[in-house]
Design goal:
This protein has 354 residues and is α/β, with parallel strands linked by helices. The chain contains six helices and 16 strands. It has two domains: 1-183; 232-354. The strands form two sheets. It has a 14-stranded parallel sheet with strand order 1-2-3-5-7-8-9-10-11-12-13-14-15-16, with no helix packed on it. The longest helix has 13 residues, at 333-345. The protein is elongated. The model has no long low-confidence stretch (mean pLDDT 89).
Amino acid sequence: DIEKFKSLTELIVERCDGLFPEELDGSIVFPSVKSLKLDVSHLTKKSSSSKVLNCFPAVSVLEIHEVPDYEYEECVMQFPSSSSLQELTFSECKGLVLVPMENGGGIQEDKSLLQSLSIFNCGNLLCQWPMVESETIYPFPASLRELDVYLDTSMKSMALLSNLTSLTTLRLKDCSNLTVDGFNPLIAVNLIQLEVHRCSTLAADMLSEVARTKLLPAGYISRLEVLTVDDISGLLAAPICILLAPALHTLKFLFDKSMESFTEEQDKALHLLTSLQKLSFHSCRRLQSLPQGLHRLSSLKELHVLWCPKIRSMPKEGLPVSLRKLRMDCPSAEIDEQIEKIKRTNPDLSVSDD
């Protein structure tokens, strides 16, 4: 008896063949469900996806997923309009393909409240999405404030994201085919957090566009506070660092595969980040030295150097006197000796190797 479940606020629907009848007539409704986790097998028919999700008119948090190691048929889906949905996740949906609505729009294009969209390991999600140079159809609504895309090869142009000028958080990871083509610098106007890695030179390409564009509002000042990238040499250019200087307090370099040492120009560019409080180098396997001018970063409070096995010494001029926390796991007697010397001159410094 479905009446017994109408007060549910949270529901997980796994692979249950036949749970939803072939012809949904609107009689099955869960009016109180706010959070829904739904196996994609229930959406495998293009005509039924809208009807299934219409059974949950109040849902605000939705996850559509596949179960690993199960076989799924391809699901070509148009995302239905919803006035309540605020958080959406597609997880491991390798057979899910999104296509535009009949009216030419993307996900909830009209009156959308969608704030957060996460796409995890859905390699074909946009493989059939039309890319017309004269008129881009945007797959995601302009209401988005947070977008997280991981392991996607179907997204090939930043033009698809050009309407997302309200974003405050953007994460693009392992999107190997994604290029800066069609990038709209206005995406950066409200960004507070940006994470881009394993996307070739995309991060530096985007920030370079923002630094040189004339499209930004008069008096624009970057609001970006947290930046995570894997392209040290691309990021440490004077125009980019001047752009980021006003607000950037956390900079993380991780998985850089090519950087070995810093040039004088890169060292000078780093000094331009006058608001920087936390700097991290993580899994930069070829990096042999830290920036020689680290001591000039007068606002720096934390330095993390982890899984960078080729670093064998500290900068000759030491570290900033403002530093309060040092995490470093580089196995070197010379580094240990230098750290002990630094601790004697900076007794407030906390040091760990984990």
